[in-house]
Amino acid sequence: MKAREILTKKGHRVVTISRDASIETAIHRLALERIGALVVSEDGQRLEGIISERDIIRALAEEGPAILGPGRKVAEIMTAAPYTCSPEDTVKELMDRMTRYRVRHLPVVEQGRLVGIVSIGDVVKNRLEEMELEANVLRDVVLARH
After folding, report:
1. What is the pLDDT of residue 124?
2. Domain boundaries, the chain
3. Does the domain at residues 3-145 carry the CATH identifier 3.30.565.10?
């Protein structure tokens, strides 16, 4: 299976935020949407970065609660050059990239345009579905032989 197929199942919606938005706003959006990362984009098509729970925790560890103060912007703590994937990348390639770079979200970019986002949860769900299908096929083969 490829990233394109995951997006077909889950949808292409990407929750974005402006680089000029406050960090506090980003935290509220993450909680409201019940997600772990926001794509930083002014127009919803051009990827400028990503801000994840990890970015926020890292900033809190380094600077303390001052990071939540007025005037503190997403651009200050976002990952400006996030790892991405293509719609044609396989689930195995996504798993390898997420593991190698220790990231949980990969924006999906096609011809320079943001077309979706794949999370570690999406990849795990897909892999579990594949394993269930394999188990069912094997069970059917065993039952057919008896």
Report:
1. 86
2. 3-145
3. no
Please count the other Cβ atoms lying within 10 Å of the Cβ belonging to residue 4: 16
One-character DSSP codes across the chain: -BHHHHHHHH-S---EE-TTSBHHHHHHHHHHHT-SEEEE-SSSSS--EEEEHHHHHHHHHHHGGGGGSTT-BHHHHSBSS---B-TT-BHHHHHHHHHHHT-SEEEEEETTEEEEEEEHHHHHHHHHHHHHHHHHHHHHHHHHH-
Q: Which two tokens stand for residue 49?
A: 């970065």
Contact indicator for 77, 52 with CB cutoff of 8 Å: no
Decide which of 135 and 145 is more confident: 145
Contact 38, 16 (CB under 8 A): yes
Which amino acid is present at 130?
E
Instruction: Give pTM, 2 decimals.
Output: 0.85
